[in-house]
Design a protein that fits this description.
The structure holds 2 protein chains of 2 kinds. Chain A is α/β, with parallel strands linked by helices. Chain A is built from 6 helices and 5 strands; from the N terminus they run βαβαβαβαβαα. By secondary structure, chain B is α+β, with helices and mostly antiparallel strands. Chain B has one domain: CheC-like (Chemotaxis protein chec). In chain B, helix 1 packs across helix 4 and helix 3 crosses helix 4. Classes of the chains: A alpha/beta, B alpha+beta.
Amino acid sequence: MSFNILVADDSETMRAVIKKSVSMSGVSVGEFYEAANGREALAVLAKTWIDVILSDINMPEMDGMELLEKISEDDEFRKIPLIFISTEASEARQEEARKLGVAGYVKKPFHPEAIKAVLHEVLGKAYAHRLEEKPTEAAGEEIDF
Amino acid sequence: MDEELQLLIFETFSEVFETMFFTVLELPEEAPGKEELACGRFIEAAISYSGGCNGSFLFYFPWELGRNITVNFLGIEEDVVQDRQVLDTAAETANMAIGSLLGHLDPEGKASLGIPQPRLLADFSPETLLGASGLCIFSTDFGLLWVVGTHG
């Protein structure tokens, strides 16, 4: 089973680094999609099946908190786990994100292992049912996520 | 800028540079020499925050430093690095460094960080920064990183 992953960050180089960290994490990636802000991320979600979103908070036009808010208001999008990867990691900000339903939080600067740990935890929780639905496919694979 | 804040800046910036760019920051023991003050190609990255507390910082990266941290950040060869990637990495460095600093200065998260703005300075001498209030200088293997900041 592979996952379509949306990376939202206004820094092109940071998007590349996050994609590289995901690729090293052992998670099976279907396709990577990219967005430079929350508005672009919503446009991707509107036309593409996404399994997990990795998003910065501090972005122009529409920041990560507003993106999370929009997602939480949509019946379909709210099923997609969103993980923040951000320098803004105060307890107050994390609590605000938790109330809106954020699935995980990684503080910048980060080691690739932090991305791996949060992805395994979040994908495991969100998509365990998918694995259970396909026992014969999952049984033969070494690592699905 | 008081010594306590300068030490906090050094510690938080060091964490960013070591974790993301595998680059060690040090506090220089001597004043910058002629070579380090000479005119050259620099990248300026500006970032500010406001809300619970206000502040603004300007980072000045010698091009060589900007290029090398970009190489380490992206894990690519030096000869394929593009100028826009170097500018973007400088901006992201300012974002991560000041975002981390703000986590200490504003633990309740009342302040909002602005979007970092990078620009290329084709012929800049850091000598113009000497004597500036809030100046911090860090040495690296690829030249001096100059940072001028205010926090209040």
